[in-house]
Amino acid sequence: MQPIIETKQLTHIYSAGTPFQHTALDSVDFCAYPGEYLGIIGHTGSGKSTLIQHLNALLKPTSGQVLFQDMDIWSDPKLTRKTRFQVGLVFQYPEYQLFEETVYKDISFGPKNMGLDEKEIDRRVRAAAYFVGLRDDHLEKSPFELSGGQKRRVAIAGVIAMEPKVLILDEPTAGLDPEGVESILGNIREYHQAHNATIILVSHSMEEVARSVDRLVAVNDGVIPFQGPPCEVFQYGDALEKMGLGVPQLTRVFHRLKAMGVDIDPSVYTLDQAKAIILRALNRSPRLDGLCGERTKESPECSSPPAEQGTERAASAEKEAD
Amino acid sequence: MALKDITLGQYFPGNSVVHRLDPRTKLICVVLYIVALFLASWFITYAVMFGVLAGAIALSKVPPKSILRGLKPILFIVVFTALLNIFYTPGTTVLAQVWIFTVTLEGLWRAFFMVIRIMMLISGTFLLTYTTSPILLTDGLESLLGPLKKVRVPVHELAMMMSIALRFIPTLIEETDKIMSAQRARGADFESGNLIQRAKALLPLLVPLFISAFRRADELATAMECRCYHGGEGRTRLRQLKYQARDYMTLFLFLATTIGVGVLGHFGL
User: Is residue A170 located within the same domain as residue A99?
Assistant: First the structure.
C-alpha cells in the first residue's frame, strides 16, 4: 500500500551552529498508511514531538523530506499550507489555545481559515461537536465557562472540523480522569471509522496505545529503534524498558512468567488475549489444571474486567506455576 | 520564527573572578565606572577608562565578540549623537560650512569622544549583565536599596516583582511558541497581510497567552501564600550576600580610578 504520509531521511537540528545545538531527529524514515491507526511512543525529549510537528509542516526539516501523498510538502508554499489542513495536529493540553467568545466560533476558526463557505463551515462545526460529544447548547457558551475536559473536547473539535485525512493527537488524554480518557479515545476511534482517516496517537502510556493501535512506532534519541504491530514491538520488553518506556503491566507479567519457565507467549497486551493464552496454557499443563481450573471457571463471562484483576489473576497463575 | 533563540538577561554562565564578585560590588563599580566616563575629557583619561574596561572583559573571559554584538542595536543612537555633535558644536576652527551646517574642529573631537563614551558605557553595563545572573542582580539591588525602606519605598516587593518577572520570561516565550504552533496548525497566518490583518491575526495568540499568564500568576500567588509568604519582613535568605577581600579590593580600585580620572579630567587631560 502507498503511504499517505512519510518522511525520508528526516533530520532536524535545533539551534544549529550555536553551543546549544541539539539533534532531535537523525535520518528518520517514518510512514503512515491510509486508514491506519498508528501509535507513537517515546519518553519526554525522545524527538516524538519534533517528528509530528514535521508531519504537518510546522517545522522545516534541516535535511530530508516529508512527503504527503507522494508530494514534498515544502516544494510549494501553497502545498505547505494545504498540508496543515489535511494533516490535523492536536497539541498536548490543547485547551490552552482556545480564544474565541463562543465554542462555535472557536471550532470554526480552522474551517474559516480554509476559506470554506458559511454553510459548509456550519455543517463541519456541528459534525465535529457531535463527534466529541458536545451538546448543541454548549456551542453558544464561552469556552472559558466549560470544565477542563469539555475545553479539551472543544479544542479537539477545532481540529476535527477541518476534516483532516490524517489526525495526529499528542497525548490527548493527559491529565484526564479515567472516564474522560475512555470517552476521548472512543471519540477518536469513531472519527477513525467514520472518515476512514489515518490516526496517529502519541503517548507514553503503553496501556493506552496498545489497546487502540494497529501499529506502533517507538522513538528514542531521535531514531526509530522498533516499529510494527504491538505484539511484535512488545517482544523487545527489555530494550523498551531501558529506553524508559516499558511494556504494559500485563505484558510484563507474561514476560516474567516466561522467564520463570512457563511455556507461554509473552507478547500479549490485551485482557482478552491474556485470558485466551492462560486458558490454553492451563489446558496444556495438567499440573496446573487442578489448581486453577476452578478459579478460571468462576468468571468465564466476565468480558472486560479492569486491568488490575487481570494482572492479579495472571499473578496467581504465576504463583501456582511454582 | 525561532522565539526560543531569544536570550533575555543574556547571562553568560562562568566562574571567572568577575563572575564571583559580589553583585553589589559590581553594581557599585558600574556606577563608579559611568561617573568616571563622564569625568573623562581627553586621550589620557579615556585611555585609562579603556584600560579598565578591557581589563575587566579579559578577566571575565566573556568573548569580546559577544560584547561587540551587543553594541549593534545602539548603532543608530551612536550615529545620531555623532552627527548632532558634529553640526551643533560652536567653535573657532571652522573646517567646512554648508548652508546652515557648520563643522568645527571642536565639534569633530566632541563627536569622537561622545561615540567612544557611549560605546564604553554600554559595554560596561553589558559586562555586568553578562557576568551576573538576574537573580543575583535583583538580590544585590535589593540589598543596596535597603536603606530606602526607611522612607517607605517597598524595596523588597519591587525586587521580588523583578525576580518573578525575570523568572517567567522564558516560560512565557515557550508558551507563546506553543500557542503559535497550535494556531498555525489550524491555519492561522502570522506572517502575511497588511498591518491591520496582522494585528487581527495576533488575537488568537494574545488571548490564550494572557489567560495563561493570569492563571500562572494566580497559581503562583496561591503557592506563595501556602508557604506563608508575607513580604520581606523578617525573611532570611538561602544565599547571604557577603563581601570578600576581593570585593573590597575591587571597590577600592574603582574608587581610586574614578577620583584619579576626575582629577585628570579637571585639568583637561
Answer: yes
User: Which residues, in sequence order, are bridge partners of residue A22?
Assistant: A14
Say if A317 falls within a structural domain: yes
**C-alpha distances out from residue A143 to A45, A99, B185, B247, Å:** 31, 8, 19, 56
Q: Which residues pair with B190 in a beta bridge?
A: none
pLDDT in tens, B182-238: 998 888 888 777 888 888 888 889 999 999 999 999 999 999 999 988 877 777 777
Instruction: Identify the domain containing residue A139 by its residue range.
Output: 33-61+82-242
Q: Which residue of B has its CA nearest to A82?
A: B187
Q: What is the ipTM of this complex?
A: 0.77
B117: burial class by Cβ within 10 Å (0-12, 13-18, 19+)?
A: middle
Quick one: pLDDT at residue B151?
Answer: 87
Could A109 and B179 be called an inter-chain contact, meaning their C-beta atoms sit closer than 8 Å? no
3-state secondary structure of A191: helix
- Based on the domain organization, do A107 and A200 belong to the same domain? yes
Examine the fold and report which residue of A218, A242, A266 is the final residue of a domain before the chain moves on. Answer: A242
Q: What's the grid cell of residue A320?
A: 501456582
Residue A162 in grid coordinates: 477541518
Q: Say yes or no: A214 and A276 in one domain.
A: no
Contact A81 B187 (CB under 8 A): yes
If asked whether residues A170 and A56 sit together in one domain, one would say: yes
Judged against a pLDDT cut of 70, whether residue A24 lies above it is answered with: yes
Q: How far is B9 from chain A (nearest CA, A)?
A: 17
Predicted TM-score (pTM) of this structure: 0.71
The answer to whether residue B54 neighbours chain A at the CB level (below 8 Å) is no
Radius of gyration of chain A (CA): 22
Edge-first strand listing for the sheet containing A71-72: A22-32, A5-14, A63-68, A71-72
CB contact under 8 A, B185 and A96: no
Contacts of A267 (CB under 8 A, 6+ apart): A230, A231, A232, A234, A235, A251, A254
Q: How many domains does chain A have?
A: 2
Mark whether A127 and A221 lie in a shared domain: yes
Closest listed residue to residue B210, CA positions, set B232, B239, B179? B179
pLDDT in tens, B18-72: 888 888 999 999 999 999 988 888 888 888 889 999 999 888 888 888 788 778 8
- The answer to whether the CB atoms of B185 and A144 lie below 8 A apart is no
- Please name the member of A56, A84, A98 whose beta carbon is closest to the beta carbon of B208: A98
> In angstroms, rounded to a whole number, what is the distance separating the alpha carbons of residues B205 and A159?
16
* For chain B, percent of residues with pLDDT exceeding 70: 96
pLDDT band at A166 (very low <50, low <70, confident <90, very high): very high
